[in-house]
Amino acid sequence: MISISSLTVSRDGKKVLSEFSQEIPGKSATLLSGPNGAGKTSLISAIAGTLKPTHGEIAISGKNPYQSTPLDLARCRSVAPQRRIFTLAYTVGEVVNFVPKSLRIGDPERIYSALGLDELWSKKVTELSIGQQQRVSLGLALNQNSDFYLLDEPFDAQDSHFQHEILELISDLKKTKGVLVVSHNTDALHPYFDQEIVLT
Hints:
Layout: E1 2-11, E2 14-24, E3 28-33, H1 40-48, E4 55-60, H2 70-76, E5 77-80, H3 92-96, H4 109-114, H5 130-142, E6 148-152, H6 160-173, E7 178-182, E8 195-198
Parallel strand pairs: 3-7, 3-8, 5-6, 6-7
Antiparallel strand pairs: 1-2, 1-4
């Protein structure tokens, strides 16, 4: 479970979330929606431990992300940001295996196949399209064996085929893990999710 209590988050001196409280269960898929500027990415960043809140408490599987070792934090959550910038010409296979062996899931082939990464395996990540790079980023996040997966706009720049494949992966993941997904386009997504949090 992710437990959030009285969370206040600011960016550049501007308050983007105020006194926000929520419990997000494990073994479920939760959709996080709301208009631009509502604080979706800031909330994901705060949960991930990369944007320290100005007030309030967060616990992932009972652990405070700001008081955890990097290893414990990696076991608690894995993050696919809205846009991961690749600047070094590693191959796709090298990138998704940046995850230390001790933290990898046991059988990543289903993920790689669903995301079309097996066909890109030997290509340089810097030479890929934005949509392909986003799928590599998602594959990297999902290769990490964590309690929760925090996925920020995973459907952006994807055609209908890969949107469907990502949704199917989420359906598989939620059987054993918690999944929190940010998306601004929620109309067709509700059947795949157990609950929705709407930020206003």
